Amino acid sequence: MAEIILENLGHSYLSDPSGDNDYALKPVNLTWQDGKTYALLGPSGCGKTTMLNIISGLVPPSHGRLLFDGQDVTQMATSARNIAQVFQFPVIYSTKTVRQNLAFPLECRDVAPGRIKERVAEVSALLDLDYALDMPARRLSADQKQLISLGRGLVREDVSAILLDEPLTVIDPQMKFMLRRKLREINRKTGVTMILVTHDQSEAMSFADEIVVMKDGRVQQSGTPAELFSRPQNEFVGYFIGSPPMNMITLNARKDALGTDALSLTKALPSDPNAGLHQLGIRPEHIALVSATDQNMGTGTIKKIEHLGVDGIVTLELSAGVVIKAKTRKHTGMQVGNAMGINVRAEDALLYVEGALAAAQ
Ligand code: ATP
């Protein structure tokens, strides 16, 4: 196991990069603690796989250093790094049995047969694969094959971290949920650091102790799921984390989009109204739909109600044509066309200036 430090680490696939845009990963500083779960989250092409491949050693970075427990491994070969990797498609020997698949990484390292037997038994028990040990691997389902890929990494006693590159993509939704829970359980039982690449925010939120949100090769914010949810540092993070995304209400220079009541909610309103584009960011979960007398942010007319089982998503049109979404459990008595008061706690109304969270928030 190891603490992993990315020190000014960046990469350009071009031999002679000239500007920021030439970098698939813009230089970044991050520290990942031993034994935790991390997710690299962002849309396609944002640099997640590049970052993961630098950590495994498949891509040599053009900038900065990578440290495992203080040791500089930037130039170290993949095979010397003690990293296990699970890819989108299971990498297994389909003609070998599950037992032979799990034993293979240890046989390659000349581990004593007795110890191999013990390790295979430990890992198959951890992964609930005991019943399948003597079956040919090709007979198993896609999620079980992914467990074997994971097991081939876990079976090694020297593994520093397990890198998971969208390993749930080929798994059906029901099994996905179970496999994700299994990954967390294995992390808790073994204490092995896990780094998951995904473009699915709900997957990242439910799996990771910390999430690194990326866009266009740049880390936008790194933090716990709770931090990213309650204090997105910019408009992109507010949009990418959460479902539905954060409401971003543009306030024009005269600050009249919602009336002055709404603006009094934000403690950090800039004194100069022409300082830039101001937005009020409010999570749908933080909007309470109340009677007109209890509102502190004006009223709105219900345009749509979506039923999601326990929760409902209510779309409202406020004054000046502003449309927002509220996520609530109190939607059952409501109807399209109803006028509702909007109530938001001051600490849940965040001010953004030109897309970035205002300093005082
Ligand atoms: P995806 O989710 O689609 O896998 P990603 O977030 O993992 O995307 P990367 O695969 O790291 O993103 O790609 C980041 C950028 O680097 C993209 O613009 C991509 O086209 C480019 N890129 C990736 N690999 C190479 C390569 N071997 N040579 C040149 N450019 C590359």
UniProtKB/TrEMBL annotation:
CDD domains: ABC_Carb_Solutes_like. The keyword Kinase does not apply. InterPro entries: AAA+_ATPase, ABC_transporter-like_ATP-bd, ABC_transpr_FbpC, ABC_transpr_MalK/UgpC-like, Mo/tungstate-bd_C_term_dom, NA-bd_OB-fold, P-loop_NTPase, Transp-assoc_OB_typ2. Keywords: ATP-binding, Cell membrane, Membrane, Nucleotide-binding, Transport. SMART domains: AAA (SM00382). This is Glycerol-3-phosphate ABC transporter, ATP-binding protein UgpC. Residues 4-241 form the ABC transporter domain. One of its GO terms (cellular component) is ATP-binding cassette (ABC) transporter complex, substrate-binding subunit-containing. GO terms for molecular function: ABC-type ferric iron transporter activity; ATP binding; ATP hydrolysis activity.
